[in-house]
């Protein structure tokens, strides 16, 4: 695997590639990330991963400085997953001058994650658009773990006519259901034991909807209450439509198969997010 610090090096390395499949990450890689690399392998003749901790998507009181950076171990994982090239720019390469132009997504970007992390999706879309231009992939693989991000980036690809096919990858979980995340490493042993409750609560709501319940607001507040009882600070538990992340019709006119349940909550100092499909589907959207 070649490690490229500049887009010029990467372009030289990729000169003969016909179909580049690209997986952007912020590093501290786990099996979830590596599953995306393996999916990318199926979609391109060359696989490029990137590692860049993007300052633009962190709020002033968030964990940019303490975000785990484990470059050598990440490289070992990427090599074992068959990645051809790693693009690992520094801040000077990515933001040689202050980034004054930003991508501002539609109002869905101000809901859910956007409510609690103002400007987050502007930061994500801006760096993803830059990465797409620097890497020039034909395919990009994103995880359903970050469902709202996946949908907003998909919308950006469509509305800016970017010549990129987006592939959505299922969430990889630990045996107890906890979605793998770089931030799981912040959890104390006691918090790690408690952490899978977020997934269980989302799954319970999804199963209740699948078996006919349409009182979404009740289900959401029961889910919030259960997490509160166990010491969580809940940002949101929300039933939304899979397409557009709209609030579903309160009388249950939306077919359960098109609904997803999303949640974000803090356990101690660690903020976790997760989501589940009401009925597991093979394809995104
Ligand atoms: P990050 O490094 O957290 O920005 O994540 C990079 C990519 O990995 C994003 O597309 C995430 O959605 C995806 N990802 C993160 N965690 C998981 C997981 N547990 N399973 C599958 N994909 C994941």
Give short descriptive properties of this protein.
alpha/beta; about 280 residues; 3-stranded antiparallel sheet
Could you explain how this protein is built, in words?
This protein has ten helices and nine strands. The longest helix is centred in the middle third of the chain and has 16 residues, at about 120-135. The chain is an alpha/beta fold and about 280 residues long. The strands form two sheets. It has a six-stranded parallel β-sheet, sandwiched between helices. The chain has a three-stranded antiparallel β-sheet with strand order 7-8-9. It is about 35% helix and about 20% strand. The two termini are about 35 Å apart. The structure holds adenosine monophosphate. Adenosine monophosphate binds near residues 26, 33, 35, 142 and 180. Adenosine monophosphate (AMP) binds next to α2 and β5.
Task: Provide a quick synopsis of the model.
The protein is α/β, with parallel strands linked by helices. It has ten helices and nine strands.
């Amino acid at each position: 695997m070649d490690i490229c610090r500049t887009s010029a090096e990467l372009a030289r390395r990729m000169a003969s590639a016909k179909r580049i499949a690209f997986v952007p990450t912020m590093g501290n890689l786990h099996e979830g990330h590596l599953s995306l690399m393996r999916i990318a392998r199926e979609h391109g003749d060359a696989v490029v991963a990137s590692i860049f901790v993007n300052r633009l998507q962190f709020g002033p009181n968030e964990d940019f400085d303490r975000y785990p950076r484990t470059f050598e171990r990440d490289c070992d994982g990427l090599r074992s997953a068959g990645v051809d090239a790693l693009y690992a720019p520094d801040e000077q390469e990515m933001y040689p001058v202050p980034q004054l132009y930003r991508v501002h997504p539609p109002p869905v970007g101000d809901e859910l994650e956007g409510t609690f992390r103002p400007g987050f999706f502007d930061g994500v879309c801006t760096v993803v658009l830059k990465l797409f231009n620097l890497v020039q992939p034909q395919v990009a693989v994103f995880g359903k773990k970050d469902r709202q991000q996946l949908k907003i980036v998909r919308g950006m690809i469509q509305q800016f006519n970017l010549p990129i096919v987006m592939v959505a990858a299922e969430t990889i979980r630990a045996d107890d259901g906890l979605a793998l995340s770089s931030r799981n490493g912040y959890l104390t042993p006691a918090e790690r034991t408690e952490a899978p409750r977020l997934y269980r609560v989302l799954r319970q709501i999804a199963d209740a909807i699948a078996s006919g319940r349409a009182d979404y607001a009740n289900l959401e507040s029961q889910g919030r209450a259960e997490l509160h009882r166990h010491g969580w600070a809940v940002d949101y538990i929300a039933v939304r439509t899979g397409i557009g992340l709209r609030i579903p019709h309160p009388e249950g006119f939306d077919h359960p198969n098109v609904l997803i349940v999303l949640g974000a909550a803090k356990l101690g100092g660690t903020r976790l997010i997760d989501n589940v499909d009401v009925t597991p589907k093979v394809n995104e959207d």
